[in-house]
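Hi C.,

You asked whether I'd gotten around to modeling the 509-residue construct. I have! Everything is below, sequence then structure, no commentary in between.
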Amino acid sequence: MRIMKAFNRILTALFLSLAGVSMSLAYAEAEAKTETDVKAGDESAKPPPSGDVIARVDDQAITFSQINTMLNSTAVVGVSVPALGTPERDTARIVVLDKVISANLLYLDAKRQGLDRDPAYQRELQGFSTGMLATLYYRHHMAGDISVPEDEIQAFFRETMTPETEMTDELHTQIEATLRKRKLHERLAAQREVLRKGLDVDLYPGNMDPSGDGTRPDDAPVAKIAGDVITRGDSKIMLIAAGRGATTLNPMAMEIDARQAALQKEIDKRIMAQKAREAGLDQDPMYQVRVNEFRKTKLVNMHRKNLAREREPTDEQLKAFYEANRADIMQVEMRKTQDVVLATREEAEALMRRLEAGELTMFQAAAEYSTAPGAKQHLGEVGWVAEGRAQPALDKLIFSLGPGEIGGPVESSEGWHLVKILDVSDAKFDNFEDEETRKLTRRRYIHDRLNTYVQDLRKNEFTVKVYEDNLVRLAQKEADMVARLSEQASQPGSRTEQRIEGLQEFLKP
């Protein structure tokens, strides 16, 4: 029931509001149907699946496992990662799903506009695919398992260490790793000749000379492998980076030498990628998943960048947007507070006298006397309070105090408060002429226009379906699993209990 209620409340509110539908209409739609269908009247969509698929954007399927994987990457999705089986995780899951739906809409729109045929995009996609296949071939057919016998480790130890050196486990591991790396380099050096056997490899050093970077065309060849040409356009970023990197590390290094060495690696990579295809490694499931992820992510980012560039505001548009959205853009003054709540004014005044006399601290007062829920756990720390958000009398007190000051008592609906100011954050972004304010306003403006664009795609161009029944079922299954494991962990003799006992034993002095 918890999952059902949470999803009924959250799902349509987030998804339909993105399409410009009010919150009240979202609830009405939730009552009318269990499947969110933004493009009304579509009879051709597939029926709700029983497996892992929880949404579709036209032919693009979105799975429960895909969302969970993204949920565990806060750097990607920009939200916290709540614990499994909690209402907070349900909410975060919907936020991530909303982001993925928007990304799929942009991906389909980019393909419709033919952006996937852009030469720069095709080069990057080909480069990523080549790198993936080369890595697979290297792991399967070149590196393999490299064993380091114990006698070789001991011989290396005797030859390189002083007589008084002790062979510790850590040193043993370091020596083994060093010898394995040395053997790998030897193997790869020997295999380069084998790798290129029967292939004609031609280099064009003149087309790699740094002096011609400003005038040389992108179709100029830098290498040819059995008729397959590597052009300057294919490799210029890699070559320039290799040359600059070498001269940064060593000002005496020759940039052309570094470029040629990097090109040799690129040639090896391309040969390995071709051999990987011949060996069928391009059918590897992980390879296909990674390439598809890159294809979509790169195209979406490119499309979003183009859309943002097209929506660059004029100064007049930016100023008008700021004035219309000033309350949302600016950050009002905030205070980080610590609070003690008492039942009566007399109790609050008596406690205030003790605080002023130094008989106890605010932390002690909150832990021993505050009636606020959780006061003993968080010791009265309320966190950041924005001006105008607290009840009037309490708000007036909070914003009349300076850092470190204690004030009160003042009454609210909760009781009588004593308040200490722990920190102050001044108002920000309240002046349009300020450079940081203009930058933030520009970001908000473009973000707002991009959201409008995506909403239009969703309502008018592509079919978006969210299979709520399947989403609820899988979320409930996850919650049940967590509850079951939690119950098992609490049983006497469980592995969790054994681990805790072992840790406690380890921590004993």
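If it helps when you're writing up: Confidence is low (pLDDT under 50) at residues 1-46.

Thanks,
B.
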